[in-house]
Write a structure and sequence with these properties.
The complex is a heterodimer of chains A (305) and B (317). In chain A, 76% of the residues lie in helices and 0% in strands. Chain A contains 15 helices and no strands. The chains are: A mainly alpha (305), B mainly alpha (317).
Chain lengths: 305, 317
């Protein structure tokens, strides 16, 4: 009896040990997915983003018309030939809607990559070296953040000229201060960690410490910020194109398609011209924001669930 | 505290100077110069040159900047290149409507976000919580111009109960009720944005506070739940919100540009769009500068307010 007791006690102890730290055993990737999947809306968002991306990539294969092809029906209501009707010039609305997804995704991803790279490098330098370099970079971010973002973008767009590439560049180049501040803040805390100090004691150069010891530990907050940045850039492009300073017709963008609704006849009697692009913007931005929120939750080191 | 305010003011000065420099550089990048705007194509080259020298455009950039800057210090923003009106006057005439629009939206937005965020946090994972969080996501994801168009469609064109443009009825007396009716839709759009952004801030700030030990202490010593929430939790949860409010100002400015365009609201935003469209760079420069100064002042005020409301922070240095 005693023997059995000892035997089972030993086994249950061994099992308990295994159960005590299930998360330590768990692969970080499966842990991430387990937390991410708890956000049902984020998973749905991911599906929406996936479908839209596929539509954007394969646009020429799934649309019946080219976005610039002029058919013989002008401003026609939705029909079997044109599922979402045609615009005032006679172009198929559904085709334009699908092609416009390319613009939004390109602007969202392109501009955030640019501002993330600039912001991350400046933030790393500012946080790691401190002193007068830090003061200069931080005052610069203060200066740029003092201008209302949309106003600054509008002014620069009016000077540089509209167009897809310019919009990506403008949003990218003007979007870095937020990233820089975020990265700097994270670097300041990571810098004090023991492994960075160890690296310094071992005589590693600043570049090596910054890029292989500090950068990997500030990627998570950058990723979360970048996700909401993509949503913001898509909204900014839409606003800019709506005001006529963004992507120019005939290239379709959800923003410039909505601009047609500024005319009263379109607004009142041709809702198929302005409701779908608006709904698309809401759909993609909402999806990205849901994903961003779930990412924040899943990547949070303080999260122990 | 006094020292902190002074130090904070001193930091604002280089930022303000930087703002004027960046503003000047952006405008120098603009194609064409004021002389091209003032004179017809038939004007001889010598006259053009004379005008350029008269306006100081032949001087090196830093001299031009200095001239512009010293005028600025005297409160002189220059003249519009299109209407030849003083820029200061043009802005002054239009700032009222914009402040009315922004102020009302900010107040209502916060008045919605704070109670809803608190309630949402207290009943985490309830139906109300899900509704509030989803609503807040919608608020930040709807393009404000689309929401504006939708409102015009429903309330002005379909139900015909609200005016769709301007600040008062043409030929009307511009009374309080009239302005109020015109204010409703633009304010709804901006409020949706403000509330959307802030509900989740308030909620997460409140959730953090609700886990604190001192709340358990407060309950343990037998305080009523309402007292625990109002006295101990809400007060602390609202401290970080002060900072967030300061960040609303530049976003609201951007929103005003788009919204004023849609609702023909006679404010700064509309002036910005029309001067951008007519390439009236001296007016744009003045507008940009004014917006930046307001943002810097708002940041200054929120920083000072933060230091006042958070007793944990000691600014001894």
């Amino acid at each position: 009896m005693n023997l059995i007791k000892r035997y089972f006690a030993g086994r249950s102890e061994a099992q308990e040990e295994k159960l005590a730290w299930p998360e330590g055993e768990e692969n970080s990737r499966t842990l991430f997915w387990r937390r991410f999947k708890r956000h049902k809306l984020a998973v749905a968002g991911l599906v929406v983003i996936g479908i839209l991306t596929l539509c954007a990539i394969f646009a020429p294969f799934i649309t019946a018309y080219k976005p610039t092809t002029v058919t013989d029906s002008f401003g026609a209501a939705p029909s079997l030939q044109h599922w979402l009707g045609t615009d005032q010039v006679g172009r198929d609305q559904l085709s334009r809607l699908i092609y416009a997804a390319r613009v939004s995704l390109a602007v969202g991803l392109g501009s955030i990559v640019i501002s993330a790279v600039i912001g991350t490098v400046l933030g790393l330098i500012s946080g790691y070296f401190g002193g007068w370099i830090d003061s200069i970079i931080m005052r610069l971010t203060d200066i740029f953040m003092s201008f209302p973002y949309i106003m600054l973008i509008l002014v620069v767009a009016s000077i540089v000229g509209p167009g897809l590439t310019n919009i990506i560049l403008i949003l990218g180049v003007l979007g870095w201060p937020g990233v820089a501040r975020l990265v700097r803040g994270n670097v300041l805390s990571v810098k004090e960690s023991d492994y960075v100090k160890a690296g310094r004691v071992l005589g590693f150069g600043s570049v090596r410490i910054i890029f292989s010891h500090i950068l990997p530990n500030v990627v998570a907050p950058i990723l979360v910020y970048a996700t909401s940045g993509v949503a913001g850039a898509i909204l900014d492009e839409a606003a800019l194109s709506f005001l006529g300073l963004g992507v120019q017709p005939p290239t379709p963008s959800w923003g410039n398609m909505l601009a047609s609704a500024q005319s009263l006849t379109v607004l009142t009697s041709q809702p198929w011209l302005w409701v779908p692009p608006g709904v698309m913007i809401i759909l993609i931005v909402l999806s990205i924001n849901f994903v961003g929120d779930a990412l924040r939750d899943a990547l949070d080191p303080k999260n122990n669930k | 505290m006094f020292k902190y305010v002074i130090r904070r003011l001193l930091i604002a000065i280089p930022v303000l100077l930087g703002v004027t420099v960046i503003n000047f550089i952006i405008m120098k990048m603009a194609p064409g110069n004021p002389v091209d705007m003032l004179i017809s194509p038939q004007t001889p080259a010598e006259a053009l040159e004379a005008k350029r020298i008269e306006l100081g455009l032949d001087a090196p950039a830093y001299v031009q900047y200095w001239n512009w800057f010293t005028h600025l210090l005297r409160g002189d923003l220059g003249y519009s290149m299109v209407t030849y009106e003083p820029v200061g006057r043009m802005i002054w005439d239009r700032i009222g409507p914009t402040l009315l629009l922004m102020g009302t939206s900010l107040i209502i937005g916060v008045a919605i976000a704070i109670p809803l965020g608190i309630l949402s946090a207290r009943r985490q994972y309830s139906k109300l919580d899900y509704a509030a969080v989803t609503g807040s996501f919608l608020g930040i994801s709807i393009p404000n111009f689309f929401l504006g168009l939708g409102l015009i469609y429903v309330f002005s064109l379909w139900l015909k109960i609200l005016p769709s443009s301007g600040m008062s009825t043409l030929g009307g007396n511009g009374g309080f009720v009239d302005i109020l009716l015109h204010l409703i839709m633009p304010v709804i759009v901006l409020t949706a944005n403000v509330a959307g952004r802030n509900i989740r801030y308030v909620r997460s700030s409140m959730l953090e506070i609700l886990e604190q030990d001192y709340l358990r202490t407060a309950r343990a010593k037998g305080l009523k739940e309402t007292l625990v929430i109002n006295r101990h939790a809400v007060r602390n949860a609202l401290i970080p919100i002060v900072t967030v409010l300061g960040m609303e100002i530049p976003i609201l400015f951007g929103g005003a540009v788009v919204i004023e365009q849609i609702f023909s609201w006679p404010g700064i935003g509309q002036l910005t769009m029309s001067s951008i469209m007519s390439r009236d760079y001296s007016t744009i420069m003045g507008l940009n500068l004014l917006a930046a100064v307001i943002v810097i002042l708002a940041n200054l005020l929120t920083d000072i307010a933060y230091a006042l409301v958070d007793p944990r922070i000691k600014y001894s240095k």
